[in-house]
Amino acid sequence: MSKVSRLLKGVSGARSRRAPGPTPQEAIHRLRETEAMLSKKQEYLEQKIEQELAIARKNGTKNKRAALQALKRKKRHEQQLTQIDGTLSTMEFQREALESASINTEVLKNMGYAARAAKGVHQNMDLDKIDSLMQDITEQQEVAQEICDAISRPFGDMYDEDDLLAELAELEMEDEEEG
User: Fold this and answer.
1) Fewest CB atoms less than 10 Å from the CB: which of 64, 132, 135, 152?
2) Measured between alpha carbons, how far is 66 from 74 in angstroms, rounded to an integer?
3) CB distance 31 to 98 below 8 Å
4) Which DSSP letter does residue 166 get?
């Protein structure tokens, strides 16, 4: 077992005995803080690379040894920058996976909550009672429609249709005479 493995095992073993692990929100917060710190380190290294290039250009013909030293430092900074890029990429992936898992957990909790609520609502329902109730409602609607129809019918025919047709014909004749 390597020293790193033993060290990590010791840290995780000691933590599990003391307290539960961090919440997803705490872990996400820490990952963001670390990403911000690494981003600042990236900016710093990019500035250092530019400075070392300037030194190498300045000393290129006058002081070859100083120019070579500046280029060596630039290469080291570039290596560090490449490592930070890889670390940042890994951390972003881990944070995104943790955020996704946290969201999925919340969604599942809410779906379970809704399922329990629906079960509680349906627990007091009996399909036979529902069918009977729906039949009663249908019957009452039919009765209400019959009442509505009865109320809205006029009391007999108050006007003779032949008299109305004759009056209409007279009006049409008057319109033709005037027009």
Assistant:
1) 152
2) 12
3) yes
4) H
pLDDT digits (tens, 9 = 90+) for 91-133: 999 999 999 999 999 999 999 999 999 888 888 788 888 899 8
Could you tell me which of 34, 10, 16, 137 has the C-alpha nearest to residue 90? 34
DSSP sequence for 139-151: HHHHHHHHHHHHH
Phi first, then psi, for residue 156 (nearest 5°) are: 70, 170
DSSP 158: -
Furthest C-alpha separation in the chain? 126
Q: Which residue has the tokens 């030293």?
A: 69
- Summarize pLDDT for 82-92 with one digit per residue, the tens: 999 999 999 99
Work out the angle between the directed axes of helices 64-123 and 24-59 (0-180°, nearest 10). 160
C-alpha angle 36-83-85 in degrees, rounded to nearest 5: 45
Rounded Cα distance between 57 and 163, Å, is 116
Does the pTM surpass 0.70? The reply is no
Its sign, for the CA torsion 50, 55, 60, 66, is: negative
